[in-house]
Amino acid sequence: MLSLTAQTRIRLARPSSDLEAAERFYGQGLGLSVLHRHIATSDAEFSLLMLGLPGASWHLELTHSARHRVTPTPSADDLLVLYLGTAAPESTVKQLEACGGVRVAALNPYWDEWGVTFEDPDGYRLVLCRRDWSV
Fold first, then answer.
1. What is the mean pLDDT of residues 99-104?
2. What is the pTM of this model?
3. How many Cα atoms occupy the beta-carbon half-sphere of 65 within 13 Å?
């Protein structure tokens, strides 16, 4: 049987049509660090950008390939939810908008009640939730 633990590393990987725009949104807008970057040197390679928090057991990996065009196909319910334990500061909301995020109504009204939802430059959604996460 597979043995997952709280320390199991998680990589959320998805395509991006514009890694620079994604870096502005998640890096400058949200405050994630660039953990790793690889720029393709040929059409056979993928460029990638890993964003997260140093030392965390998770990161977001965004990929792009000139040869293998994969158009991001997010739905209105593809969410990356961050449980902040408090309302997102208005300065963060404005920064995310200035960095390419678009504030949108959530498909599920639960998220509008408990937070604020943005579409990132690829159309995926980020929720800044004011609730705590407790297990």
1. 98
2. 0.92
3. 11
Write out the two tokens for 89. Answer: 């500061």
Rounded Cα distance, 106 and 55, in Å? 31
Assigned CATH topology for domain 10-64: 2,3-Dihydroxybiphenyl 1,2-Dioxygenase; domain 1 (3.10.180)
3-state secondary structure labels for all residues of 75-115: CCCCEEEEECCCCCCHHHHHHHHHCCCEEECCCCHHHHHHE
Distance linking the first and last C-alpha atoms of the chain: 23
Lowest average pLDDT, out of 4-8, 55-59, 116-120, goes to 4-8
Distance CA 91, CA 110 (A): 23
Q: Give the whole-angstrom CA distance, residue 41 versus residue 37.
A: 13
The percentage of the chain sitting over the pLDDT mark of 70, rounded to a whole number, equals 99
